[in-house]
């Protein structure tokens, strides 16, 4: 019974979504940009330039190293894959030196390994790196993407007035829909509007896009990661309600496995992204991935939090003395809780909280450490819960009510009365 109502709830919340049946949980995969940027010089950077070789070796690693089987199933090429001019027929031409086999062959390679093919374009005259954008060639470009068996399009927003995006992104989405091929649609629409302090229409964005970049690009540093976490926390009231099955806020790629984050900081990103129901797009060289970072990316319990079928985005519920607490309610009645330290003063201090400090319903919980370093414990109303936090580190727990079934039933009754109007 409880399960039935939850299924109905999911149906209700996705009724406003882009109805292409895709991204019922946040998309997972790999994308070139953060790690490989616009490297086009394959002589100097033979294993890092944006090329079919990079994509193919990544595909191989995703299969062999278990990323695909953990759910990372899209492989995406970001900017810098095009020739600088279109062909005589007006079509986009992939760079002839770096993609000599063409996009159909690359798509076949990706699909034959059980993965899906993502590609980047831009709604304006040019892409951000100066390659031809789709403006004026939208139909031809959608036809071309379909002929290349593309499964995911990230549409950026350089070289176009942000005021035109409210009509432009839906129009391009309609061409994707009319094509008949299911193509995941990633929009950069709100990011450009937030940038000029124009209030994005998130209801419309969630109706037309499967995921959308809300804000600035992430860079390879703790500083950049902190800014993004702060921004998503500070703006959560207007962002979180628009996330749900089929439509997700996107705080940008995972830095994990690159140069800029320590192991503790990488754990922070994974935990907070899971609470945010964020798309999980690795942007790292899988060939040089260190085991400690790989185990963060492949942590099944944390991936299950991110991919929770209810699709409810979590919130930052506490921020004091450079500690932030983030919580997310899950389908089975439990809660994911991340304690994040923004402190840099050296010692790993113990902090003590009560359930009401982080706004969890007052009941008895069994608590499981999702990074599996601590043994299970329990906590009840008015008891202190002690967490030892490394500087710029995290503890990430699942709080499981002793009586899950009761909580689930209560919740369903509330939903039944208020949301379904019965
Ligand atoms: C796009 O290019 C056309 C033709 O060159 C030009 O008229 C138009 O102003 C450009 N639009 C933007 C947003 O740059
Ligand atoms: C963008 O469009 C708006 C409304 O049409 C206009 O007022 C504004 O000047 C344009 N901005 C730029 C940079 O072209
Ligand atoms: C197009 O939209 C309709 C109605 O929203 C939906 O049922 C269908 O699955 C969509 N098709 C594609 C290919 O996106
Ligand atoms: C901790 O709790 C989880 C969830 O209830 C359970 O799966 C796991 O076996 C427990 N671990 C130990 C060491 O008891």
TrEMBL record:
<comment type="similarity">
    <text>Belongs to the glycosyl hydrolase 27 family.</text>
</comment>
<dbReference type="InterPro" id="IPR013785">
    <property type="entry name" value="Aldolase_TIM"/>
</dbReference>
<protein>
    <recommendedName>
        <fullName>Alpha-galactosidase</fullName>
        <ecNumber>3.2.1.-</ecNumber>
    </recommendedName>
</protein>
<keyword id="KW-0732">Signal</keyword>
<keyword id="KW-0325">Glycoprotein</keyword>
<keyword id="KW-1015">Disulfide bond</keyword>
<feature type="domain" description="Alpha galactosidase A C-terminal">
    <location>
        <begin position="311"/>
        <end position="393"/>
    </location>
</feature>
<dbReference type="Pfam" id="PF16499">
    <property type="entry name" value="Melibiase_2"/>
</dbReference>
<dbReference type="InterPro" id="IPR035373">
    <property type="entry name" value="Melibiase/NAGA_C"/>
</dbReference>
<dbReference type="InterPro" id="IPR013780">
    <property type="entry name" value="Glyco_hydro_b"/>
</dbReference>
<comment type="subunit">
    <text>Homodimer.</text>
</comment>
<dbReference type="Pfam" id="PF17450">
    <property type="entry name" value="Melibiase_2_C"/>
</dbReference>
<feature type="signal peptide">
    <location>
        <begin position="1"/>
        <end position="17"/>
    </location>
</feature>
<dbReference type="InterPro" id="IPR002241">
    <property type="entry name" value="Glyco_hydro_27"/>
</dbReference>
<dbReference type="InterPro" id="IPR017853">
    <property type="entry name" value="GH"/>
</dbReference>
<keyword id="KW-0378">Hydrolase</keyword>
<keyword id="KW-0326">Glycosidase</keyword>
